[in-house]
Specification:
six-stranded mixed β-sheet, alpha/beta, 200 residues, 6 helices
Length: 200
């Protein structure tokens, strides 16, 4: 319903090279994604939960502000778009978010850019979730840390998309009204299932 076609532009494309240690280099062309600001939160009805994930940076800021203005809880997940944000803009959108999700590398980038811990940066957020690959994840909420163990995968076939699968678990748990322990464990399980399968 809400897919917009942009005449004369290609769909965004990413080419990811993964080595045997699961390090990755990504080549990316945004294509029509550069026009993401044409989409508005108000275009869809009945939204009860949202996520602002890697997209055109101006659209990410816009969508954070739109979710916040409409009082719709949302996750801010800067991902690969994080290096594009300046310190003041990054601080602003993190402060608007109800939840923040980053991996351990992204968490360090946020802390370096803002000069404070990610938990301190997201003072309004109900939770800050930091994934740590094979070391599991940590959910900072209510002044405490909940450590979520990793679920050992059946095999390691393809790490691409594990973070997305993890975030799907977080979204499901939030929508279902689960506590953070149960939500984090589902997210960890989904990431593990993904790493054992090639492709999306």
């Amino acid at each position: 319903t809400h897919v917009r076609r942009i005449a004369g532009m290609y769909t965004a494309q990413a080419f990811i090279t993964t080595d045997i240690d699961d390090n990755q280099i990504t080549a990316f062309h945004p294509g029509a994604m550069a026009e993401a600001r044409q989409n508005h939160v108000s275009d869809a009805q009945g939204i009860s939960l949202g996520i602002v994930a890697p997209d055109a940076p101006d659209a990410m800021v816009q969508h954070c502000k739109e979710f916040h203005a409409r009082k719709i809880p949302f996750i801010f997940d800067p991902g690969q778009s994080l290096p594009i944000f300046g310190a003041s803009e990054l601080g602003e959108v993190i402060e608007l978010a109800d939840y923040v999700t980053v991996n351990d590398y992204e968490a360090r980038m946020v802390e370096e850019r803002l000069g404070k811990s990610i938990a301190q940066a997201a003072t309004r957020a109900k939770a800050v979730i930091v994934t740590r690959g094979g070391q599991g994840s940590v959910i900072h909420t209510g002044g405490k840390e909940i450590h979520i163990p990793v679920v050992p995968p059946a095999e390691i076939a393809d790490p691409t998309g594990c973070g997305d699968a993890y975030r799907a678990g977080i979204l499901y748990g939030l929508q279902a009204g689960w506590d953070w322990e149960k939500t984090g464990r589902l997210a960890s399980l989904l990431g593990s299932i993904k790493v054992a399968h090639r492709g999306p």
